[in-house]
Design goal:
Number of strands: 0
Oligomer: single chain
Radius of gyration: 20 Å
Domain NADH:quinone oxidoreductase/Mrp antiporter transmembrane: 25-80, 88-280
Number of helices: 14
Subcellular location: Mitochondrion inner membrane
Enzyme class: translocase
Family: Belongs to the complex I subunit 2 family.
Order of helices and strands: HHHHHHHHHHHHHH
Protein name: NADH-ubiquinone oxidoreductase chain 2
Shape: globular
Length: 332
């Protein structure tokens, strides 16, 4: 994800330290410090003096995250001064930080302004601390209902918003918003399930982003430039796995979420999540049809053998449920 620049490596290490501090803390103040360390480490990673779009994206990201941090501080003040339960305000701040609906407005523009390696960090690494803190904030009936409503809204916004997009980074941004619905459902049910879903989502989305980054593809028109049939087949597997289609890896965590939601009789929530997944599969299929049916007359330089091997290994991980079928029955 990071290049060999020593400053980027230092910022990457402090970013990881911020996540560890935020997740492992036993007080909200220390968690806030971890979130701030994570934010201040990520801004230099996504900003670039040579690219005005990345600088604009970094500024947008900083302002939104600063607003979320301010809301957390206000909630702490309301608890100590006004003796008001701050859990709802804290939950709203964490939803803003993750880019979940209805406060998702900043996420697609920021994704569009950064490169593919920063995109995958924004989709996965930067969601770890807020999501686990969100699971800690579900302490009452009101917060549980809020998570259900925001999860359903994220599922619908992520599914419908991606239909009209032709820029691949924005498509993956709306896909990430849709997966936020499943991640919030996982946080509602179990921390172990949240960890499993986040880990599998990180692997599957990395397989998609790595393939697009290796071929430098950012728009529908560039899909025809994928060099050979093997690469097109790998994109087919990776995108369908991201959509949660069996028997690919992305189907396993969704099956676990559906299983546990059905055990607590949340049938309407399951219905909304499933319908939204079908819609996301539609625009993944649209990408695949473009990839498989079009070919470019221009010759592109071949990728290096090490890059090809990395893409093959990461993409074939999506077929791992065929090797370990019993893991679908693992309970939390």
């Amino acid at each position: 994800m990071l290049n060999s620049n020593p400053s980027r490596i230092v910022f990457g290490l402090s970013l990881t330290l911020g996540i560890i501090i935020a997740v492992s803390s036993n007080s909200w103040f220390t968690s806030w410090l971890g979130l701030e360390l994570n934010l201040l480490s990520f801004i230099p990673i996504i900003s670039s003096s040579f690219n005005s779009y990345s600088s604009e994206a970094a500024l947008k990201y900083f302002l939104i995250q600063a607003l979320g941090s301010a809301m957390i501080l206000i909630s702490a003040t309301s608890m100590s001064v006004f003796l008001v339960n701050p859990s709802l305000l804290t939950l709203g701040a964490l939803l803003l930080k993750t880019g979940a609906a209805p406060v998702h407005f900043w996420f697609p523009p920021v994704m569009q302004g950064v490169s593919w390696p920063q995109c995958i960090m924004l989709m996965t690494v930067q969601k770890i601390a807020p999501l686990f803190l969100l699971s800690y904030a579900i302490v009452s009936l009101i917060t549980s209902a809020t998570v259900m409503i925001c999860s359903s809204a994220s599922a619908l916004v992520g599914a419908i918003g991606g239909l009209k997009q032709t820029l691949l980074r924005k498509i993956l941004a709306y896909s990430s918003i849709n997966h936020m619905a499943w991640l919030m459902a996982s946080a509602f049910l179990s921390s172990n399930l949240l960890f499993t879903y986040l880990m599998v989502y990180s692997i599957v989305s990395s397989s998609v982003v790595f393939l697009l980054n290796a071929n430098q593809i950012f728009h529908f028109k560039q899909l025809s430039s994928i060099p050979n049939t093997k690469m097109k087949t790998l994109s087919f597997m990776a995108l369908f796995s991201l959509g949660g289609l069996p028997p690919f890896l992305g189907f396993i965590p969704k099956l676990l979420v559906i299983n546990l939601l059905s055990s607590v009789s949340e049938l309407l929530w399951i219905f909304i999540l499933l319908v939204s997944s079908l819609i996301t599969l539609f625009y993944y299929t649209r990408i695949l049809l473009t990839t498989l049916t079009l070919s470019s007359p221009k010759l592109k330089p071949l990728l290096s053998e090490s890059t090809n091997l990395s893409i093959y290994i990461l993409s074939f991980i999506n077929f791992s449920p065929l090797l370990f079928p019993l893991m679908a029955f693992y309970q939390f």
